[in-house]
From TrEMBL:
Ig-like domain span: 7-82
Keyword Cell inner membrane among UniProt keywords: no
A GO MF label: cytokine receptor activity
Entry-linked InterPro entries: FN3_dom (IPR003961), FN3_sf (IPR036116), Growth/epo_recpt_lig-bind (IPR015152), Ig-like_dom (IPR007110), Ig-like_dom_sf (IPR036179), Ig-like_fold (IPR013783), Type-I_Cytokine_Rcpt (IPR050379)
Residue ranges of domain Fibronectin type-III in the record: 103-204
Domain of life where this protein originates: Eukaryota
Source species: Falcunculus frontatus
Entry keyword annotation includes Disulfide bond: yes
Official protein name in the record: Cytokine receptor-like factor 1
Assigned keywords, A-Z: Disulfide bond, Glycoprotein, Immunoglobulin domain, Phosphoprotein, Receptor, Repeat, Secreted, Signal
Region feature Disordered, mapped onto this chain: 325-346
One Gene Ontology term from the biological process aspect of the record: negative regulation of neuron apoptotic process
Subcellular location: Secreted
SUPFAM superfamilies, A to Z: Fibronectin type III, Immunoglobulin
């Protein structure tokens, strides 16, 4: 027998079928091999198929009938093999059973500092489960220009592509994704966007966190605006999140805002009622005061930036990644051991008492001031802490 001769041939070879289809495959042994139909059997993915599904179509041809096929177990195809009686492999075929692709959805894009464009999308539901699906992201300038094909895939995840250059500003683009497999092609809806509307940037740099004098419950946060956009006309808003040293969770979701206090200059006071402090600043405010913190505690702080209204764009902008964590600690409290902080229903009473003390102090020490600035508030906090220390040393209420 010639070494190049194939022992047998399976027909059809490597078919592609819809889920639920039926198939009759035949195995025909070469005349050069002394094998008959009764010497053959079939396996599918290593499992022997029942003899009741076989039919001898000639002295050396054996068929097998497969009904209501399920989707392929693997995207490389299910293995249908014709064997000789002793288990030898005579021929094989791959069965590709699945569904046509569904159109991709949820296309989202962003541009890093207006220098490039990255897009992500979500695949259809079941079509990708059984058959390998290819995705192609295409784009063109609206109203004119030819279709372009993105080349750098998987840069931001499985379903993503990166366009590194040659993009125009002030020009709307049409972007879509084509999905194709052995059973067909599906095209997403077309997304139209302007690069200026999807700009994101690097995280804020030079983030510094420091104490506010001897105030036990406050930290000052300062940062720099995105340097990559310094030559562009844009506005920015910032978010701050922080956590204590012994917690690994950044708690996000708060809605309280850092706000500029009267006479506060570039600084601002932040409520500590929620874990996330949000700075919505349409100017160039690059600082914030965190208040209501625990004394003697290490805090990790992160800041992120949202550049928006670039050259007058009306879109909301896209948040950057968070900056690297920066740590600082609040001053340690010097209250005597055994002291207790107000809890539960006592907090409102304590707040009213401290506000009364504050306005009494202002009347006594700052008569004639028309505005209550952050510096004045800080002076009162220091006075209040000193009075607490004196009271604790004396051991009696003032």
């Amino acid at each position: 027998v010639s070494p190049a001769a194939d022992p047998a041939v399976i027909s059809p070879q490597d078919p592609t079928l819809l889920i639920g289809s039926s198939l009759v495959a035949t195995c025909t042994v070469s005349p050069d091999f002394p094998l008959k139909a009764e010497d053959l059997y079939w396996t599918l993915n290593g499992r022997r198929l029942p003899a009741a599904s076989y039919t001898a179509l000639g002295p050396s041809t054996l068929s097998v009938a497969l009904a209501r096929l399920n989707g392929s177990r693997q995207q490389s195809g299910d293995n249908l093999v014709c064997h000789s009686r002793d288990g030898g492999i005579l021929a094989g075929s791959c069965l590709y059973v699945g569904l046509p692709p569904e159109k991709p959805v949820n296309i989202t894009c962003w541009s890093k500092n207006m220098k490039d464009l990255t897009c992500k999308w979500a695949p259809g539901t079941e079509g990708e489960t059984f058959l390998h699906t290819n995705y192609t992201l295409k784009y063109k300038r609206r109203w004119y220009g030819q279709d372009n094909t993105c080349q750098e895939y998987h840069t931001a995840g499985t379903y993503s592509c990166h366009i590194p250059k040659d993009l125009a500003l002030f020009t709307p683009y049409e972007i879509w994704v084509e999905a194709s497999n052995r059973l067909g092609v599906a095209v997403s809806d077309v997304v139209m966007l302007d690069i200026l509307d999807v700009v994101t940037t690097d995280p804020p740099s030079d983030v510094h966190v420091s104490r506010v004098g001897d105030l036990e419950d406050q930290l000052s946060v300062r940062w720099s605006s995105p340097p990559a956009l310094k030559d562009f006309l844009f506005q920015a808003k910032y978010q701050i999140q922080y956590r204590v040293e012994d917690s690994s969770e950044w708690k996000v979701g708060g809605h309280r805002r850092c706000r500029r206090m009267a006479g506060g200059g570039r600084g601002s006071g932040c409520s500590h009622l929620v874990p996330l402090q949000v700075v919505d600043d349409v100017g160039n405010q690059t600082s914030c005061r965190l208040a209501g913190l625990r004394p003697g505690t290490v805090y990790f702080v992160q800041v992120r930036c949202n550049p928006f209204s670039i050259y007058g764009s009306k879109k909301a902008g896209i948040w950057s990644d968070w900056s690297n964590p920066t740590a600082a600690s609040t001053p340690r409290s010097e209250r005597v051991a055994g002291g207790c902080d107000p809890k539960g229903g006592e907090q409102n009473t304590t707040l009213r008492r401290e506000l009364k003390q504050f306005f009494g102090w202002v009347k006594k020490h700052a008569y004639g001031c028309s505005n209550l600035g952050i510096k004045l508030y800080d002076q009162w906090r220091v006075w209040l802490q000193k009075s607490h220390k004196t009271r604790n040393q004396v051991g009696k209420e003032p």
